[in-house]
Design goal:
It is built from 15 helices and 13 strands. It has about 375 residues and is an alpha/beta fold. It has 2 domains: about 150 residues, Rossmann fold; about 210 residues, Dihydrodipicolinate Reductase, domain 2 (2-Layer Sandwich), CATH 3.30.360. The strands form 3 sheets. An 8-stranded mixed sheet has the order 12-11-10-6-9-8-7-13. Strands 3-4-5 form a 3-stranded parallel sheet, with helices on both faces. Strands 1-2 form a two-stranded parallel sheet. Strand 8 and strand 9 form a beta hairpin. Helix 7 runs parallel beside helix 10 and helix 13 packs across helix 15. GO terms for molecular function: nucleotide binding. This is Dehydrogenase. InterPro entries: Gfo/Idh/MocA-like_OxRdtase_N, Gfo/Idh/MocA_Oxidoreductase, GFO_IDH_MocA-like_dom, NAD(P)-bd_dom_sf.
Length: about 375
């Protein structure tokens, strides 16, 4: 466990401790006392203040990264090169360039030789060495039973063609929240609420709606003393022809996380704040749909929340099978590309096409495009 703050203590460590056949061997934090306190609290045998030292001594199978975004690329690459798989908190990193560096440090998609006995044991019984290592990123909302059920129905066409999508992450973060030195800065976070908060709902939206073609956007810094935005909105055109809107805010007293998809035969809605159960999903049949048809859509067989534990279980199964996990590679990159495109659209005041932000584009290495006047530019050209 690299980084022993709130998200590690509140989400990841409980999930790891409850997972079968998992031993937590080390806690790492730049603050030696905090690493030591974490290790004592969770019964972890070793604590470190240096990532490379931990990797050399412990040779872990899996490294979980819960540090600020500015450290994700360096720590993920180090872990991968040491032969460890990675589960890294969102956002994956600060830019598409950093993401591609992480991906370049992964192992082959083809079967490759394991490094050391600890890695060979991950594929025990498979008859081959595991592929990888791979880096996956925390987009846990995909892994709830409600999301899996909705994705299955939509992808199979059982609810008809998609037409309209709404994606809302309207949360509240006060000035004290941004008093933490690394928050609200392009160089340390890679963006504001679109990158650090709304990316969860955007990832789930793309999981349900599929690929996008074009995005137009606006962003503003309306109330918080930050370098990034505190509010953003976007219009999206999907490959299917459907259209959607996305809104992100940290200025909203009534907090809400919502996704709504209108299809030919039904409206699918998810309403929650920081996590959901099956009860937070609603299906409204179109007027022409019979009760018998709607009943045929079924319901999830389990009630799994979109939790860190759910994604961890999926990742561990992939490790043992030696296959690329979900939320990695191209699959893990898409919400970061969308968010970067939204920023580019807001800064430049023009539509951005999927796939256009590549090496040589200033937004490839910096989601602000290196512009310090980005809010004014967006307002004057909008």
């Amino acid at each position: 466990m690299i980084g022993t703050g709130n998200i590690a203590d509140g989400r990841h460590l409980p999930a790891l401790q409850d997972a079968p056949d998992v031993e937590i061997v080390a806690a790492v934090d730049v603050d030696e006392d905090r690493a030591r306190d974490c290790a004592a609290k969770w019964g972890i045998p070793a604590s470190y203040s240096d990532v490379e030292t931990m990797l050399t001594r412990e040779q872990p199978d899996l490294v979980v990264i819960c540090t600020p975004p500015a450290l994700h690329r360096e720590q993920a690459v180090a872990a991968l090169r040491a032969g460890a798989w990675v589960l890294c908190e969102k956002p994956p990193c600060r830019s598409l360039a950093e993401y591609d560096e992480i991906a370049a440090a992964e192992g082959s998609d083809q079967t490759q030789a394991a490094e050391g006995d600890c890695h060979a044991s991950a594929a025990e019984g498979d008859g081959h060495s595991p592929a990888g290592p791979y880096a996956a990123f925390v987009f846990q909302h995909r892994f709830g039973s409600g999301a899996e059920h909705a994705r299955s129905l939509i992808s199979q066409g059982r609810l008809g063609a998609p037409y309209v999508a709404l994606c809302q992450t309207t949360w509240y973060r006060d000035d004290a929240y941004y008093a933490v030195p690394w928050r609200g800065r392009w160089d340390t976070e890679g963006g504001g609420p679109a990158m650090g908060h709304g990316i969860h709902q955007v990832d789930l939206l793309l999981e349900l709606m599929g690929d996008w073609v074009e995005v137009r956007a606006m962003a503003g810094r309306l109330a918080r003393d930050v370098q990034t935005e505190d509010v953003s909105t976007a219009l999206v055109h999907f490959t299917s022809g459907a259209m959607g809107s996305v809104i992100n805010s940290v200025l909203s007293p009534q907090e809400a996380s919502r996704i709504r998809v209108d299809l030919a035969d039904a409206t699918v809605e998810l309403a929650h704040v920081y996590g959901y159960t099956n009860d937070d999903w609603t299906y409204t049949p179109a007027r022409h749909v019979t009760a018998e048809q709607a009943e045929g859509w079924g319901t999830p067989t389990t009630d799994e929340t979109g939790s860190h534990a759910g994604q961890l279980a999926s990742l561990l199964a992939d490790m043992r099978a030696g296959r690329r996990p979900r939320c990695s590679g191209v699959d893990g990159r898409r919400s970061l590309e969308f968010t970067t495109a939204m920023y580019k659209a807001a800064v430049t005041g023009r539509p951005v096409r999927a796939g256009e932000i590549v090496e040589g584009d200033p937004f490839y290495t910096d989601p602000s495009g290196g512009r310090t006047d980005w809010t004014l530019a967006a307002q004057s050209t909008g």
